[in-house]
Amino acid sequence: xxxxxxxxxxFPRIGARRELKTALEAFWRGELDEAAxxxxxxxxxxxxWALQADAGLxxxxxxxxxxxxxxxxxxQLFGCEPARFGFDEAATPLTRYFAMARGERGGHTDCCAHxxxxxxxxxxxxxxxxxxxxxxxxxxxxxxxxxxxxxGERLLAEVAEAQALGHRVKAxxxxxxxxxxxxxxxxxxxxxxxxxxKLLPVYTxxxxxxxxxxxxWVQVDEPILGLDLPQEWRNAFEIAYWLLAQSGAxxxxxxxxxxxxxNLGLACRLPVxxxxxxxxxxxxxxxxxxxxxxxxxxxxxGIVDGRNIWxxxxxxxxxxxxxxxxxxxELWLAPSxxxxxxxxxxxxxxxxxxxxxxxxxxxxxxxxxxxTLKAALRGAAAPQLVEARAAIASRARSTRVHSDAVAAxxxxxxxDADRRGAPFAARQVVQRARLRLPAFPTTTIGSFPQTAAxxxxxxxxxxxxxxxxxxxxxxxxxxxxxxxxxxxxxxxxLVHGEAERNDMxxxxxxxxxxxxxxxxxWVQSYGSRCVKPxxxxxxxxxxxxxxxxxxxxxxxxxxxxxxxxxTGPVTILQWSFVRDxxxxxxxxxxxxxxxxxxxxxxxxxxxGIIQIDEPALREGLPLRRARxxxxxxxxxxxxxxxxxxxxxxxxxxxxxCYAEFNDILPQIAALDADVITIETSRSDMALLDGFGKFxxxxxxxxxxxxxxxxxxxxxxxxxxxxxxxAQVIPAANLWVNPDCGLKTRGWAETxxxxxxxxxxxxxxxx
Length: 766
Ligand SMILES: Nc1nc2c(c(=O)[nH]1)N[C@@H](CNc1ccc(C(=O)N[C@@H](CCC(=O)N[C@@H](CCC(=O)N[C@@H](CCC(=O)O)C(=O)O)C(=O)O)C(=O)O)cc1)CN2
Ligand SMILES: [Zn+2]
Description:
The structure is a single chain. By secondary structure, this protein is α/β, with parallel strands linked by helices. Helices cover 42% and strands 13% of the residues. The strands form six sheets. An eight-stranded parallel beta sheet has the order 1-12-11-10-9-8-6-2. A five-stranded parallel beta sheet has the order 17-19-20-21-22. A three-stranded mixed beta sheet has the order 13-16-18. Strand 19 (609-613), helix 23 (628-643) and strand 20 form a beta-alpha-beta unit. Helix 26 (715-728) crosses helix 27. The radius of gyration is 26 Å and the shape is globular. It starts with a strand and ends with a helix. The site of zinc ion has 7 residues, from loops.
């Protein structure tokens, strides 16, 4: 008799109507007490476990819920809150949790997810990308003094909660090595791995407690097994898991996002009861894993894509799974990774194009796919299989996916489409003659505060309560307001402020052919902040200009140059759900061509400076270094094709707000943007050193203040950073700007900060 089980590695927690966001923000405003927030969390967990049980999952997953972030929850679970917070006895766990997440003053409401290090001892934990996703986790801080204790009872309480609801439980934990890997050393030279010895006993105690509480399996996530690991870290796995095995708990070791490659043998050898592998991104490894993973260890196959929203081709999945099942006699079926990265359900997507909708599966629909696969593999009748087959066939033969015009354009693309006319040095001369900017020109990154009034107007427009013309007038008034305030502040290069954009990526997705967008397809980005990634299903084309009217309106209001503002092809690709039926490189190229036309139209509209944001260029880097070159080649080419429509006297800016540029400086230089603005204030300009050493040839605007904090930077502090920057970058190439856009800030602090920024630039000129 063959054994088949279905499970999930994790489930979305924000709620169908973003109930968690609503509750959290009300709590932070002081309108909800702890008990009410806890009740909101419990209600969401109960609902999400019920969905799992209803889909026939024998074990529900407990431990994937978090009020802000699962890594932060582990910091509390293991009692390693950084001492710098100086928490006193009276602080409740929840108060301490949100202090770590948002800073003691609670200002972490950023757009680009970075902290305000060095400002005060209670500043929030650093936030950074979770592997190659758009989810951000809070970075644990480790030092020689770090101690671990089993401090949090929350996980054990949630287990009891699920059991009381009648569920059998699989608990989930981040593994000890991944937890240490994700952290940062408080001081240079400290080796996080040296903490393993202190950490393991706490894991063992926890595993024993979970077992005693009747938890049948514990899923322990070690996604770092898909990275290029230093040898010491690889070695540590054997010792660590040998020790954890002494707990007697049944461990399902979970890997995802990346092939195991040289760690495949190691992962299969570890003394655990089961191994989960990513059957989507590491499909080619399934046969080896099946051979290497000795029975009676359980193999869990992540056969349903947890990172994308397409229906699974169930026939293809069955063809993969059947031989594995025949060989092993037992198989667990799961999504490839936690479903945190996809929206909750299609159920409320009434406005979605019905044909495209039939091609999709969000988290809840993925649960049904698992059930159908299980039934089909057991040889039971699976009527859903028929419907699924029809949807897959409809997508495969749809004429809407392919456009001859787009294909022809890609085909006919000249080899030099990714080249500007003249080299940078020559462009710089004509741009300076045209723009006549002072030294240390001041500018901002694009967005100004997205006020409650702006969002309310857009919500009313969407509801049908505000006619299009009135909505557009309201946005034009917001733009006029932003332009007037920038002139008053004395900025040199203005922006229109992006009032009309719900999100920098969704906004373009809504206007391009080849995309559909959801009404409720929210995915958590960090804390209570969510994005609604557009769905890119077909060939991309631009039916009409998207930003020109707004930009021209803004430019008509000022004699100073107004920057046109676009999102680059790599970021649109990276922050959308994209088609899986052609290489990402080709999809990026199609987006690049559409955005290229927008560059041309802005230029024709007399916009002299155009910024093409690429904050996700770094995030898109493959997790394995061996794949970097290929990615960087097509990604940077896509950017250059977009920018390539610009004349020599049109100044192209780009913006990136995530750190660790040093690995890819040659490729950043190869973008050949005339000006790049980057986030540097948090690192006290240290990030700029790489650009200096590399002799970065073009102009640079290193961010001079952190936009994630409402704190207003002083003129002296800004001037100090500028002087520091001028030591590594030729002063003639320096711009003055904040770290990132200002959409999550309020006007009062924005205005005060920019006034000081302009003052600092004037001092530099003098
Ligand atoms: N896609 C993307 N990824 C990114 C970033 C980014 O800017 N975009 N920045 C980095 C950090 N990530 C971030 C992700 C989200 C937000 C953010 O602020 N999200 C907003 C939603 C933005 C949005 O889509 N707004 C819509 C919908 C707003 C909304 O919720 N409206 C209410 C009604 C509001 C009202 O009546 O006042 C509703 O529909 O219920 C709009 O403005 O139109 C939020 O969660 O609150 C910020 C940073 C990295 N990744
Ligand atoms: Zn940014």
